[in-house]
Specification:
Largest sheet: 5 strands, antiparallel
Oligomer: single chain
Distance between the termini: 22 Å
CATH class of one domain: Mainly Beta
Strand content: 35-45%
Number of helices: 0
Structural class: mainly beta
Number of strands: 5
CATH architecture of one domain: Roll
Strand order of the largest sheet: 4-3-2-1-5
Mean pLDDT: 90
Radius of gyration: 13 Å
């Protein structure tokens, strides 16, 4: 499977794995928690689902794109 290359500041895509860059105390989420981008609500806002080790969702939160870091699982040039 060929992976498309991304630019460093590219927006998340649907089903990208992302990490929070800041706490979201109202949702009980802390910086560094990992979730999946499940819907783009507008140009700057994503709906992100957070799951436990068993795959059960424990939170769904609206997150600003600027507060998300796309995680990569294959080597990429910096």
């Amino acid at each position: 499977m060929k992976m498309r290359r991304r630019t460093r500041n590219e927006s998340p895509s649907l089903l990208d794995v992302v990490a929070l860059l800041k706490d979201l105390p109202a949702q009980g989420l802390a910086r560094g928690q990992v979730g999946t981008a499940v819907e783009q609500l507008d140009d700057q806002t994503w709906l992100v689902e957070f799951n436990d080790d068993e795959g059960r969702a424990y939170a769904v939160a609206q997150c600003q794109e600027a507060d998300l870091l796309i995680l990569h699982y294959v080597p990429e040039a910096a």
